[in-house]
Structure formats: C-alpha cells, structure tokens
Amino acid sequence: MPATDNMPTAARAVSSLLMAGLAWIASEMIRPLMPEATSFGIFNYVNVALALLCGWRVTGKRLGFGWMTGISAGLSGVAALVFWAVFLQSLYKMLDMAMDRRFDGLMEGLTNIFEIGVDYLLILADGPLIAVLVAGGLLIGLIGEWVSRRWS
C-alpha cells in the first residue's frame, strides 16, 4: 500500500460529507420504526460520525478506479455504515442493560449484543429505508467517482 493512500482528496471529502447526509436522512427514517418509548439521545450524531469515517476510509479510498468500482465503493461504504451503526447501537443498549444488572455474567452480556443487533436489523428491514440506503450508496459512488476524475 503506497504512503499516499491516506492522503486527503476531494473525492474522500465529498464521499464523506455525502455519506454523513445519507446517515442523517436514514436516522430520521429509523425513528418512526422504533418503539414509541425509545429515547434516541445523540443517535443521529453518532451515525453521522460513523458515516464520516466510513465515507473517508471505505468509500473514498476506493474511488478513482472506474465507474463500476465507484458504485461498488459507495455500496460498500453504506454496508459498512449499517454494520458499524448497528454494532455500536447494540453495544450501547447492552451496556445500558448491564448497568441495570440484567445480566449474570460477561458472556451473557456479550452474546446479548448480537441478539440486540439482530432485533435492530429486523426493524431496519423496511422497504423505503433500504431503497434510500441503496440509492444513496449508488449516488455517493457515482458522485465520488466523478469528483475523483474531475479534481485529480
């Protein structure tokens, strides 16, 4: 891996910002899908921070190698964002439950992260949300590739 792979580029910045916008929109679409008593706190901000990282590290790193690779990079960035967001939100929920002493041991708490994650993924299996994420990933990949070609 060349030393320049971590250098800032316009394509990385644009894909990162577009991914953050997509994360905010998706987070707002998730709110009505959750149970009514759910306290969201900084839910949107955590997802936007993850999106900035995924846009920079996953999508932006793979731009500049062709249109199909750009589309693939955008979809991969969205998939990474969904994975890390579900994992982090599940971890937070498990820690909240652990503070209420709902687990008997460490392993029960750790396995519960995955049970919570599966529950969250079932909630996320919503047609319009999936369509927005897929379309957003496609657009981010195409726009990022265009920016890479335009300003490189």
From TrEMBL:
<feature type="transmembrane region" description="Helical">
    <location>
        <begin position="12"/>
        <end position="30"/>
    </location>
</feature>
<keyword id="KW-0812">Transmembrane</keyword>
<keyword id="KW-1133">Transmembrane helix</keyword>
<protein>
    <recommendedName>
        <fullName>Tellurium resistance protein</fullName>
    </recommendedName>
</protein>
<feature type="transmembrane region" description="Helical">
    <location>
        <begin position="42"/>
        <end position="59"/>
    </location>
</feature>
<feature type="transmembrane region" description="Helical">
    <location>
        <begin position="129"/>
        <end position="147"/>
    </location>
</feature>
<keyword id="KW-0472">Membrane</keyword>
<dbReference type="InterPro" id="IPR047784">
    <property type="entry name" value="TrgA"/>
</dbReference>
<feature type="transmembrane region" description="Helical">
    <location>
        <begin position="65"/>
        <end position="91"/>
    </location>
</feature>
